[in-house]
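Hi everyone,

Forwarding the result from last night's run.
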Amino acid sequence: MKHILHLHSAFDLGGKEARAVKLMNHFGAAARHVILSAVPEAIGARAAIDAGIEVEFPGDAAPALYGKPALGRYLRLARYMQGFDLVLSYNWGAMDGVMAHRLLAPVMSLPPLIHHEDGFNEDEAVRLNWKRNAFRISALKGAHALVVPSVTLEEIAHSVWKQPLGKVHRIANGIDIARYQRSPQPGSFPGLGRQDGDIVVGTIAGLRAVKNLPRLVRAVAAAGSHIKLAIAGEGPERAAILAEAARLGIADRLAMPGFLCDPASYVGYFDVFALSSDSEQYPISLVEAMAAGLPAVCTDVGDVRHMVAAENRRFIIDKADEAAFARALSELAADAQLRADIGAANRALAAAEYGVEHMFARYRSLYGSAMKCAEFARQGGGHGLAAESESAPSWRGDN
């Protein structure tokens, strides 16, 4: 059994966290895990880990991932890494752990470290922070590999962070496609009622400023009085979203039940998927919607334009053009056949390219190679791997 240390910027159930959970559940008895969070109270994804997985959350017993860069902090982090077979770090919030490893691995015989970058929050949505870039360039020199999910991030890794070609691994996030092709479960989206003629525009997102959900509220309000809006997610922008809906007089057409753990059970209630973010890289919520056979209206951010079927691309809108976003929603709401045709194309593309088994195999190969363990690297290599269950969490489209 391999002993893996995870250094997370936060461990609430967002995109990177839920992918990490799915991988942990998939590895099953092949590994045991220790998880540190740079935001100590942000460990909401813990509940999604299968009961049989060996996992520890040491909390204050482990060195902090946050704080000013200092050799003493780095020494404590490096000492903590000793005894593990592999260190996995995630996003900017864990970069102090990456730097500690880079500085001290040569003299402390530390295990290999693989860093994962999934995108940026609102503070880097428009322009990358040059100080962070410089820090990343230096810290990542000691990493065994850098994993990114998108073409956009792969290009940034090479051109901005100066990572050599063989070190960067683009592994697209995947899902269990078949689960999204079933009928939605009754009552799985609380508060969402519909009458004949209603069209439901839905999204799945953390309620953070970078997701710009007030933009989506405005677009729905402008698109037609028969359109309802369903938002699954939780976060600090909840009050602002509700206030915008009230201001525009559509509060009675908005369902916001909070975080819902199994999108496969409810995404089929939507008629149109919408994504209104200012910044994304590879939003898994879009893949989920495609697998469910939905057309999508999205801002033109990250890899979104390249992810959808060709038939859907004219509904990928410049994020500055809110009027065009509303028109796109209105056009799809008015044409059931158009929705069906685009949805079918999206479903076919998702089935062909976004399956979870390929993703599992890529990660097992990379992690096993880093640990020099061919048995771990083999897909289904006799470790009692946990299959993706009916209740398995689906990772989110958060950055």
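The radius of gyration is 21 Å.

Cheers,
N.
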